[in-house]
Structure formats: structure tokens, C-alpha cells
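Q: Structure for this?
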Amino acid sequence: MAQSAEHVLDHFELFRGPEYQQMLANKKKMFENPRDPAEVERIREWAKTPEYREKNFAREALTVNPAKACQPLGAVFASVGFEATLPFVHGSQGCVAYYRSHLSRHFKEPSSCVSSSMTEDAAVFGGLNNMIDGLANSYNMYKPKMIAVSTTCMAEVIGDDLNAFIKTSKEKGSVPADFDVPFAHTPAFVGSHVTGYDNALKGILEHFWDGKAGTAAKLERAPNNKINLIGGFDGYTVGNIREIKRIFELMGIHYTILADNSDVFDTPTDGEFRMYDGGTTLEDAANAVHAKATISMQQWCTEKTLPFIADHGQEVVAFNYPVGVSATDEFLMALSRISGKDIPEELARERGRLVDAMADSSAHVHGKKFAIYGDPDLCYGLAAFLLELGAEPIHVLSTNGNKAWEEKMQALFGSSPFGQNCHAYPGRDLWHMRSLLFTEPVDFLIGNTYGKYLERDTGTPLIRIGFPIFDRHHHHRSPVWGYQGGMNVLVKILDKIFDEIDKKTNIAGKTDYSFDIIR
Amino acid sequence: MSLATTQSIAEIKARNKELIQEVLRVYPEKTAKRRAKHLNVHEAGKSDCGVKSNLKSIPGVMTIRGCAYAGSKGVVWGPIKDMIHISHGPVGCGQYSWGSRRNYYVGTTGIDSFVTLQFTSDFQEKDIVFGGDKKLVKIIDEIQELFPLNNGITIQSECPIGLIGDDIEAVSRAKSKEYGGKTIVPVRCEGFRGVSQSLGHHIANDAVRDWVFDKVTPESKPTFEPTPYDVAIIGDYNIGGDAWSSRILLEEMGLRVIAQWSGDGSLAELEATPKAKLNVLHCYRSMNYISRHMEEKFGIPWCEYNFFGPSKIVESLRKIAGYFDDKIKEGAERVIAKYQPLVDAVIAKYRPRLEGKSVMLFVGGLRPRHVIGAYEDLGMEVVGTGYEFGHNDDYQRTAQHYVKDGTLIYDDVTGYEFERFVEKIQPDLVGSGIKEKYVFQKMGVPFRQMHSWDYSGPYHGYDGFAIFARDMDMAINSPIWKKTKAPWKEVPKPNLLAAE
């Protein structure tokens, strides 16, 4: 018996002991009808080959380890960015349990959201009664200022009509007639979580700007000098939005962050649970129609929202998750151009510091090969930054990236001497990435927590940037946008590079050389 | 120390009853009437907890429950390691349940074991419109080509499958035939079926019965020589290694564990289980169905046990041994004696730090009752408990064997109710899930996730009890809870004032 009260052994130590190892070996031999170890080894090696890669890339139906989630997750993420807003997902209840868990595991924060809990009878008769009861209950229990409705695939397959259902619910008195209940259809079988973000945000803006589903007058745009900013679905929303606000304030720009969930996903532990915190006020959401321009930090999170805004007479500008020097330059210059405000010296100095840091460290990054996967905009932003560092983003894969994304990525690669051997892989999954890493190895992999399986199987060191990050804590609190954010990304990459050199040179008596204290 | 310990049972009951009335006031009338049936104060001597259960959750209240797919893919089938489980439908369900349950296993992932892979048919609009059967056929072919060492396939239906009229049974039969009788199991666990995860467990159990057991001919010989001491562990999902720290005890007492359901389990183990002499059942809720079936069809008795905390472990080891001869009975005593010094040391170290602390639970499966003994072994008291998806038989077991007079009972608790209850009762610890964890920690209440063991575990068996005790101590006695109030905002608690 290895366990002791004095030194309690955790699972990662306990089961390594001889008693358990013997027990597990016996279990396997006697009862699991195991495969011949030689055969396992043969297949393991085969799965690393170009031949396997070819079969793997010939897949037409099966998806293995995708790097995307479904629409309603994005809808919930966007909805909680509005003041005291309760996301209400119409359909099966298990979905909501999943979104809440998923968001909580990433942010280490509560995630409040309700379901209309549809079951078999609703599948037959439709979910109108679930909507009527659900809105009434949510309104009474959680006292929201707004309930933002989206849908699970169940409600979409049976064709529930949100507009009509909400209207009927109001007639039945579930919520007051003038209570804000924007909605968006967010079928899980179309697009991904970034699509859901887009649909939900558009639904909310449409509600406020275009007459609240026929119950109020459409807003008449009276242009002012404000700038709206949309962050998009972003695992770093807490750090990033706060950095963006700091930049706006430094520049003296009047702004509205739309879907500002930076506070609700970062509430203090001080004895009070804040179900709602911060967020874009409903007044600001409505008045955002008057802004001079709207900036989206993620083009593929706002494919419908931006044209909708443009149709209301505003200038719209989209970025692709700007990370690093040039992308931040472009962002700031766009802000300056639109607002007419100068970029303050303080930001110029921050820029200089980032360039300084990149110059100091570039020898360690230059020429290194990377693989990146994640949401389309994140991939673009990170790849662009790597090119600035003289690194090569050899494989860039986005399960929810499309043809247009691929073209844009290839254009980026074409614009840099370091991009010549780089390829974009739209619609592919992490099992494809596994083949890429085996057949065309790179030095480092950038991705979310699930990348740790790739790191284990292929030996490619993982730098965790993306969503979700479940197995490392608190990185979402630091920005990756702005020069300051670029610095954070640079440090994250460098730390991994140095750690890997140390790991390869730390065997005493064998590699005492190269184990340097100065780098 | 919580308020509870300073009050008499009568006072506690009165407070809890008032608390129930208070939370009901927030609801619209119809909802209040429905929720009232799920809330109660336990009366000692009653045969159940006096609450309704296994009924539909009410829309919009923030239920903590999941769905049938979660019960089948997430709980019952997902841990079977040498089979590939296809999340059949849109991408989300498989994504959110990917690797999050910590069902530990040994194997070469991606080659002969597949638990922490996410296989999905990633339904697109055209699959909804034209049906997904053809895609499923192709998926199975692609699996066979790319993952040739898989020992079987299950099809875990997501909501749309049942709504668009796909015939996954026909596809399974045809493909099984094509691949030489390969085990391919269609599971009708669409998320809208039933009221919670619970129906998913049942459907998954039935799928084992119909698509695994019925393929095994009764006269077929297991690959091993049977012994009189063959048992199967049923309803242990090996979270953080729970089934392993349980198995080791059964083996040490002289039994032979021929199958684990389903943590670190394999198809061969499922198929061999009808040869067991006894099924030992940990999670009654999720696997009583298949245990009853094996009793009826194969005459295998089953026996519920509880490996949380030494008191229940001792009771359970003796109970299990009672089905066997003296050799095993002596073996049980030997095991109990062997681990007694560990138990004594753990209790000596942690009980003084935990004595009198109160706990509120809200969990799924067997845990709302099964862990109570472990807390009591540490001198702690469970003052409130409830089941996410329990049935009346769970509440009967709870009332008859576990909870104390005056315990607050809340079935399918809503977010609102749970917050109010905790706020008023002020327990020293809350044990629930990831969705609840940060809510209560923000309130300054120590918390442990009691589904995933908060990324710790195992909690089963003697080895697990040491970890359990350490974890509860570190949650409750973490110095951080003294720092939740800024010193300049510190307000003396009214009840402490009154005591001076």
C-alpha cells in the first residue's frame, strides 16, 4: 500500500505504483482481449506515414477532433455581453448545460443561461408553451433587463418561429410588452460558434435599431462621433476588451463596445455572486446606430452583422484578430483616421517597446516553423505576427474556416518571404493536423487545450493560445491585442522555445553543454 | 462553523420549511406549485424524502440537468475504450463532452483506444434535409479504414436524428454484416428524450442488452477459465481512477474482477459479464437496468455497495463477501485490517480540522447519498442534498440509509433556489458541479466539484478516501476564504455580534 495520510498520493502518482501497475497489466491480459502489441505498434507507425495522411485527407464524412463548436455557444457568449442580459436558448436543455460548462471551464467563472427545456411533446407540438412558461419564469426569477433568445438544433429542425413565439408570449403576459426580447435563429448544423455570435449580435442590434420586432419605431440615425467596437468570439475577451478600452481612452475617442462581456467573465470573489456584471448598456446598444463607424476585430465573427450595420449608414471596418506590430498599427491608424484623433505618444512608445522586444529575441524565433489551428480570424492574426517575427506558419488549419478564408490566408503567405512554404487548411480537423505534424514536422504548435493530444502523439511542443483553454489558468485575463498584447504573445512563444531548449539539454553527464544560463 | 450546529432539530426544520416557502415566492403561481413538490424537509422515519422526482424540468428556471445523450455518450458508453463512439448529429454535443469526464483508461489513444477522441458526423444543413444515413454509412467505412483496431462502434444520436426519421438501426445491421458481424450499436439517446440524463442511461443499458448481449450466444465460452469468485464492477466510471482503487480491494479480498462497467472497460468485458457470479453495483441510478436484466436472464445476483469513506467501505466489503464462502469473508476482514492504519491516520490528521463542518450537496447519480458516509467519517454533517436526475427509489435509499432528520431536500434544484438555500444555511462546504462551482466561490463559500472530483480523485476505496479527506480539508481550510472581504469593508457578522 503506497497511500499515506502524511503524503497523500494523487492519481498521477498513485497508479504508477507497482500494485496498480500489476493489477492493470493483469486486467488487460486476462479480460480486455487486447490486440497484439506488435500490431498496435505497426498501426501506430502506419498512422504517421504519408500513405495514412493521404487516406486521412480523403475523408468525406467523418470528423475527428474538430476545432469548432456549435452556433448557440457563440450566441450565449455574445448575449451575456449586454447589461443584465439572460441568454435563453430555446430547445433541449442538455445543450445549455453544455454551453455553461464549456464557458465556465475556460474562464473559471459562472456562466448563467437558461433553457426552454423542450422534450418529446414539444418535438411533436412545437415549443410555444415552453417559450411562454420559460420567459415568465426567467423574468420573475432572475430579474434580467433583457432576455436574448437563441435556438438549439432541435427547435430549428421542428421549425419553431421565434418571432411569433415571443410575440405570443408577450400577449400571454410572460414578460411586459415593452420588455426587450431580441432573438436569433442559431441552428447548430450551420456554421459554428462564430456564426452564432454573429447571428445573436445582429439579432440584438436589429431589435434595438429596427423597431423591436414591429413594436416600436425604427431608430432614425443621427450621426455622432462615437466608434463602435465588436470583439467577436474571443477566449481572451477579458484582457482584450480592457486593453481596447485603455487604447480608446488614451486616444480620447468616444466609444461603445458592443457585446462587452469582459466584466461578466471576470467578477471578483468578495462574497457576492454577480449573475450580471458590466456589459453594453441597452441604451448604448440602441444608440450605437448613431455612431460614425463600427470596427470588428474579427471579420468571420461579423459576416452578417457588419453589412447590417453598413446598411444603416455607418462606415464598417473589419480586422482579422490583430496581433503584433503591423496589425496593431493598422488598427490604430484606422481609429485615428475615423476619429480624427492623433495616436498619442504613449502608444508610440508601447509600439517601440514591442519592436524592441522582438529585436532582442528575434534570433530565437526567426526561421522556426509553426503549425496553428483555431478560429479563422485568430489563425490569421497569429500567422501574421509569426511572419513579422521571421517565423514560418507552415500549417494553418481552421475547422470553421471557408474558401474565402483560405484565399485570404494564402494571400498573406504570398505577401511575405517567410510565407512561401505555408498552407491554409479550411474545414479540416485535428486528426488531419496530426497527419500534417507527422509528415511535415514543425517546431511548435499553437492551439487550444485539445492540442495537448497532438503534442503527446507527435512530440510537437504546444503553445496554448485559443479557445478553449481548460488546463491552464488565467491567461484569458491578459490581452493579446494591442502592442501590450503582442508582447504577451511574444513572451508566451519565447518561454516555450527556451523551455524546449532546456528540456533537450538538461541530462547531466550527457548534455552539460548548451544548457546555457544566458540566452 | 455553520449556524446549523447551534440550532435544535426543531429550529432547523422550521427554518428549512420557511426557506422553501421563501424561494417559492419568486415563481409565477403555476411554477411555484410545481416546484413545491420537489422541495422538502426530511422527517426521520419516513420511507422516502417526500419529494417528487424524475419529472420534466420547468422551462426558464436554470435547471442543472443535462440530456439523454449526455447520459448515454457521456456516462455509459463513452468510457468503453476500444470502441469508437460517434456523436451523430451537429458538432456541439460531442465537442462539449470531449474528454471532460475524466474516465481514466489505459491504452494507446487513437490506435487501440478512443475515449479522448471526438468522433462526430458534424451534420450540415443538407444532412438535416436529406437525412444522414448515407453519411453514417460512409463514416463507418472511414472509421474502419483509418482506425482498423477499433473493436466496435456505437452511434450516439443527437436531437436531430430522431426528428428527421433516420434509420440508424438499419445502417448498423447492414454495416455489421458487411464487416463480418462487427459490433455496431445504434443508440437512440436524442437529447429531447425524457427529462434528464437518466433516460439516456436507461436507453444505453438497453442498447447493451439488445446489441451486445443478444449477439453473444449463451453457450459461448469466455476467453478465460471461470472461477467461483468472478465478479463484475457495474456503474463505476473510473473518474480519476475510482474503479481502479475499488478493483484493487475486491481483488485483495480474493475476488476476480472480470469486467468494469464502464470506466476503463472494453467490449470483451461487456460480453463476458454474463459469466459473472455476482454483479457489484456502485451507481445504481445509471446501471440498475442492466443489472436487473442480467439477474432475470442469466440468474446473476447483484449487490449495491458504497466505496466512499471507511464506514461504508467496511459495510460494503462484508456485504459483498456475504455472497461468497469463508475464504472471501476472511479476505474481506484481511483487507479491512490491512487498511485500518491508513484510515486511522487519515482520520487523526483531518477529522480535527473538519469536525462539525456542514456540507450541502447537489449532484447526480449515486453521490447525493453515497458520499454522506465519507463526510460523516470526517466528523462532518450533510445538511442539504438533492439529485439532479434521481428517481423515487433513490430518494427511498437516501431516506432509509443516509440523511438525518431535518435535512433540506431539493430535487432538480434551480440556480435560484440553490443560491438562496446556501446563502441562508451558510454551509462550510458546497459539493456540486462545474456550473455551480464559481457561483458559490464568489459568495465566499468553499466548494468541491463532486462530478469530476475537481480534477482530483480517485475518491473511491481506501486510497481514494485519503485524497477525499485531503481535498475537503484544503477546500474548507484554505486561507483564501478569510480574504474575500477587503479589510476596510469588513462588517462583523450579526450572529457573531449577538453571541458576544
